[in-house]
């Protein structure tokens, strides 16, 4: 078991709904966090991110001015701010698979679907603290590695060139069909 | 080939770089027992207790969210059916969808989910059925007024199911010439309940 030193971590909570900000703040203080900053929309969030340099950002998706997705893209600009690698937890009412993929592709580290619970938020924080993922930079993406693990059963073309995973050979479907079961 | 900068190690591949930031948050965690998957239940229980202390506020917050939803509905009449006014309604419904269960009204959240679906997937704001929106808003208000807690009240469940069925039927009709939409959203979810 890991014990997180919440009292040393600095959080930034961005949500346009004051009730939800209060709930998240209450949970974080309950875990033991002392430094919790708030912002009520994406623009104020970006400003607070620059001012407070939080260790972890927790953001809503649907917000006025610019939303959590746009905010994430702005934070994940290499060289544009002090810490483009900051863990970003997206806390949202959106639950469709398409939305989760969209959030992941914008550079979100963890996705947490509302309704929020003390356990679910803790689990996401634990993950970003204890299991940091490397960042991947391509022409079209910059963010935490979207591959959380190497699937030993994967067969198919390798989409990254030169990476370790390239040694995985695709098994032709015909061979697979002929293989004894 | 790996290159070390002051704050990151970069390994370059033909079409991507793998970057390991020097700074991570591992130093903020201490391993206190061998089972790495076990949670720090004390911290979670403290947070639950803190949320419980806050819970007397929830009824008042839920009422104010309903007021906000009704105001957003009135804006559709006063301001007309536009992208801007429907966005205000969507955000109000979306917040109830996300918070309703936390505040003790999971069925209000379920009805709000149906309203979000209706507003989000109706192709043009002008096509939004105001009577169906009104039914959703009234049902959410009724769940809160009648203090319907939990998710098994038979009448509220029937109302929620009926509103969802009406929403789905309306949307299928709106998208009848859009096979892509029908394939993705027009069929029942395969996610187990």
From TrEMBL, chain A:
PROSITE patterns: RESPONSE_REGULATORY. SUPFAM superfamilies: CheY-like. Keywords: Phosphoprotein. It comes from the Bacteria. The keyword Phosphoprotein applies. The keyword Iron-sulfur does not apply. Gene3D superfamilies: 3.40.50.2300. Residues 10-129 form the Response regulatory domain. The modification 4-aspartylphosphate is found at residue 60. One of its GO terms (biological process) is phosphorelay signal transduction system. InterPro entries: CheY-like_superfamily, Sig_transdc_resp-reg_receiver, ST_Response_Regulator. PANTHER family: TWO-COMPONENT RESPONSE REGULATOR (PTHR43228), TWO-COMPONENT RESPONSE REGULATOR ARR22 (PTHR43228:SF1). This is Response regulator.
